[in-house]
Amino acid sequence: MTEKLMAFAHLGTSISVAGQTATQRIDYSITGSAATPLPTDLRPTSVFECGTGQLALAPALGDVVRTAGRYVQSAAVLPATAEGNALVDQLLRAKTKGLSGRRLLERRDK
Amino acid sequence: MDEEGRWPPIYNFEQLAEYIDELARDDAFDARFYVLTGLAEPEVCQGDIVHLPAPVPAIADDGKPILTDDVDHWLVVGNTCDFDRPVDEVSWTQAVPIFDLGSEAELGSAKLAELRRYSAYRGFYVPPWHGGDDHHRLADFTRIVPVHKLAFREAATVVARMQLQAWVLLHSCLVRFLARDDGRHD
């Protein structure tokens, strides 16, 4: 499967979205190359070209992250809980000084 | 641990779950957490508890370096493979400070039971080890510190080494800590 960013899709290209009967029309094109890029989570979603040549939209980034998060939780077997996190945070707060540490000696310029 | 000083591989999720469940449900949790011999070979492994009295370095809110809490023990989280590489090739590894929570009487049985569930992202419960005191401890994943590998040879002592199940548990907790969903994409 080849990944193509939607940024390279031509204006007005018709794309079939898996699971949808109607053809979805996506209007997106590059307007410049020197501008500040969008934050990662605001970039357009990816369009995948299947072996058949059909294009399909990739799942939303949030869905991918949540799915990955579920796998991580499963792999850890013992899931994190609000109670467990609260206790550990409270114990670490009580045992640590935060920012009240010792300053390192600063080098003086001659 | 095999002849090369490495834990055997884990081939699938079921095996991973089996290892962790086996440890977490064991009544003799503390006794099965650490190996009792072989602390010197190899020199340092991921998951080792090392005695190395030192302050925890950090960058303060003004961007300046500071030395914070003095701790006696550290949990090695750097990969064991890095210790096998020559120092001039890979000089640094990573460790996290371990904070002393006191005895069971000081900590309280309810809190201890919660810590043994390993249900928190940011900390890793470190049970008492053979030959040490009866104190329970908590390693702070949020304060990973780079440590020169020679420091372990010159100034530190390995006081406890995890058994396979405990090491797998540490791995899982490290992955959970580093890869948890932060909600940015919700």
What does this molecule look like?
The complex is a heterodimer of chains A (110) and B (186). Chain A is an alpha+beta fold and 110 residues long. Chain A folds into 2 domains: 2-58, no CATH class; 62-92, no CATH class. Chain A has 2 helices and 6 strands. In chain A, 9% of the residues are buried. Mean pLDDT of chain A is 64; it is low at 1-17. In chain B, strands 1, 2, 3, 4, 5, 6, 7 and 8 form an 8-stranded antiparallel sheet that branches. The chains are: A alpha+beta (110), B alpha+beta (186). The interface between A and B is large, with 37 and 44 residues.
Topology diagram in text:
The complex is a heterodimer of chains A (110) and B (186).
Chain A: E1 2-5, E2 14-15, E3 24-25, E4 46-49, E5 55-57, H1 61-75, H2 82-95, E6 102-103
Antiparallel strand pairs in A: 1-4, 2-3, 4-5
Chain B: H1 13-24, H2 29-33, E1 34-35, E2 49-59, E3 65-76, H3 80-84, E4 92-102, H4 104-107, H5 109-115, E5 123-126, E6 136-140, E7 145-148, H6 149-154, E8 157-162, H7 164-179
Short key terms for the protein model shown above:
heterodimer, A: 110 residues, alpha+beta, three-stranded antiparallel beta sheet, two-stranded antiparallel ribbon, 2 helices, 6 strands, disordered N terminus, B: 186 residues, 30% strand
